[in-house]
Amino acid sequence: MPPRNEPPDPTGSEVILWHSLSGQPADTLAALVDEFNATNAWRIVVVPQYQGVYPTLRNRLDDALDHGASPDLTVLFPYHAAGYVSHGAAVSLDAYVNNVHFGLNEADRADIFPVFPQQRPQSAAWRSVDELPNGAQRHRAVLQR
C-alpha cells in the first residue's frame, strides 16, 4: 500500500465518469476524454457515462453510493459536492494532481482556467475534501462543474 500522502499508481486503470452533460458540453467532454485516452502515458481509460438530466444523475449517484457501486468520478455543482464530502463519499484529487510521476506538469497547470484555482480556497467543498483521508482502497472524487 502506498504511503498515506501517496495515491495508488493509476497505470492501466479504468475510470468511470458520470455526468449530466448534453449537446455541445457533452461533445466537448467526449473530445477531451478521447484525447486523454489516446495520449496519457499511464494507459488510463476514462469512460464517460451520461446519467440523464442533473436531478437524475444525483438520484443515481445516491443509489449507487447506498449500494457500494458508485462511479470513480462525478461532475457536480460545488454545493452538491459539499454534501457528498461531508458524508465521506469524496476524496481530494490533490495527491494525484501534485504527484511527481503522474500529476500535472507546468504546461497542464497553465492550461487551467485561472478562476478555478482562485475559487478553491472559498469553496467549502474543496476545503472539506482536502481534510479527508485518502487511504481507502477505492478512491472516489466529486469534481466541481
Give a structural overview.
Strands 2-1-3-4 form a four-stranded parallel beta sheet, with helices on both faces. The chain contains seven helices and four strands; from the N terminus they run βαβαβαααααβ. It has 145 residues and is an alpha/beta fold. It starts with 13 loop residues before the first strand and ends with a strand. Helices cover 42% and strands 14% of the residues. The chain has a single domain, classed as D-Maltodextrin-Binding Protein, domain 2 (3-Layer(aba) Sandwich), CATH 3.40.190. It is globular, with a radius of gyration of 15 Å. The C terminus is likely disordered.
In short:
The protein is α/β, with parallel strands linked by helices and 145 residues long.
| Proper CATH architecture | 3-Layer(aba) Sandwich
Helical content class: 40-55%
**Tally of alpha and pi helices:** 7
- Strand elements, count: 4
Cα distance, first to last residue? 31 Å
Strand content is 5-15%
Into how many domains do the coordinates divide? 1
CATH class: Alpha Beta
**Could you state the CATH homologous superfamily?**
Periplasmic binding protein-like II
Radius of gyration: 15 Å
Shape descriptor: globular
Average of per-residue pLDDT values: 77
Spatial ordering of strands, largest sheet: 2-1-3-4
The CATH topology is: D-Maltodextrin-Binding Protein, domain 2
- Secondary-structure-derived class: alpha/beta
**How many strands, which pairing sense, and closed or not: the largest β-sheet?**
4 strands, parallel
Order of helices and strands: EHEHEHHHHHE
Uncertain runs: 120-145
